[in-house]
Amino acid sequence: MRRMLTIGAMAAVGISGLVVAPLTFAAQAPAGACPDVEIVGARGTTERPGLGVVLGPLAQQLTRGLAQSVRATAVDYPASFNYQASVRQGVSALSAQLRRTAAACARTRFVLMGYSQGADVMGDALAGGRAAQPTVPAALSDRVAAVLFFGDPTFTAGEPFNVTDGTRSGILARGDGRLDAFADRTRSFCNRNDRFCQGGTSLAAHLDYAKFFGDALAFTRRELG
Predict the structure, then answer these.
(1) What are the tens digits of pLDDT across the range 48-104?
(2) What pLDDT score does 91 carry?
């Protein structure tokens, strides 16, 4: 598993320099104001700090395509090869970010999105992972409007929120029903033969998620009303 994660991360590193996405965009909330929506994203393994090569362009598209005012924020975590420790740090950082925004902005709702290791971070925060309890409290979870996963290594075949033409589970499958509380607010995009979310053989499939951005935008619009 470590070898597969390493190879996949190296592929991500190879293209990560092509896109440097800012964390705020044209339709952002005014400086110092509370946004209607905060997009919080967790990048994949070894990607540069920020939203990363997949989530950066998606955040830009969501910000421009949603009717609400938006702020985009990246989870501040290592996204490193020290996988389990990195995920735990990501879960803690995500929880802290959500609590800060919720305390300062009583009406702000959240769109959570994660790519690869970042999807694992999001799932663990919402469902609990590695025998841990969820870190997003029930009162705050009600403000999570939409959850978007891409290339999630904890992908579990047969879940109602899956969007894939593959039939297998990921290399770290989370298990049936772990995200039931968020199922109606979640979409998990997984390419057939993706090395991580399908346990397949293709690294290219693990990077090919821009084609789902239109679906992700339409889903997020519906969930935000």
Answers:
(1) 999 999 999 999 999 999 999 999 999 999 999 999 999 999 999 999 999 999 999
(2) 94
What is the torsion angle, in degrees rounded to the nearest 10, for the CA atoms of residue 205, residue 119, residue 64 and residue 72? Answer: -140
Domains of the chain from N-terminus onward = 2-224 (3.40.50.1820)
- If pLDDT is split at 50, 70 and 90, which confidence band does 33 have? confident
Q: Which residues contact 206 (CB under 8 A, 6 or more apart)?
A: 8, 11, 12, 116, 151, 191, 194, 195, 196, 197
pTM: 0.86
- DSSP letter for each residue of the chain: -HHHHHHHHHHHHHHHTT----S--TTBPPTTSPPSEEEEEE--TTPPSSSHHHHHHHHHHHHHH-SS-EEEEE------SSHHHHHHHHHHHHHHHHHHHHHH-TT-EEEEEEETHHHHHHHHHHH--TTPPPSS-HHHHTTEEEEEEES-TT--TT-TTEEES-----TT---TTTTGGGGGGEEEEE-TTBTTTS--SBSHHHH--GGGHHHHHHHHHHHH-
CA angle 28–31–36, rounded 5-degree value:
50
Catalytic residues: 116, 194, 206
Q: pLDDT of 182-220, one tens digit each?
A: 999 999 999 999 999 999 999 999 999 999 999 999 999
